Amino acid sequence: MTHAISSVRPLLERQPADLSLSFEADPAPAPGLSAFEATGQVALNTNGSYQIRGGKLLVGDEALGLDSLFPAIARGFSLTSTPTGWT
User: Fold this and answer.
1) Residue pLDDT tens, the chain, 87 long
2) How many angstroms separate the CA atoms of 4 and 14, rounded?
């Protein structure tokens, strides 16, 4: 399995970052799933959501496009910095 992200700095600055992920398996975990590749740009938005633009998925011999917005959701916990540490 290989993966790459262009740089973390653009993500932290709320700028798009190139992303790629791929794997090959022998034997395949499922019919037609011996190889998987995903590429695109990921951006974190100021409201906590993130967006994938120009996404391309190659699963076996099938090519798919992916442009998505994933909204921020309320989390059931939070981390707070205190003088004695994180709580």
Assistant:
1) 555 666 667 777 778 888 888 888 788 777 777 888 888 998 888 888 888 899 898 887 788 898 888 887 765 545 555 555 554
2) 18
Does a cis peptide bond (omega within 30 degrees of 0) precede residue 27? yes
Asked if 16 and 39 count as a contact pair (C-beta separation under 8 A), the reply is no
Which residue shows structure tokens 């967006």? 51
Tokens coding 85: 């540490």
Structure tokens at 41: 């740009």
DSSP string, the chain: -EEEES-HHHHHTT--EEEEEEEE-SS-SSTT-SEEEEEEEEEE-TTS-EEEEEEEEEETTEEEEEEEEE-----S----EETTEE-
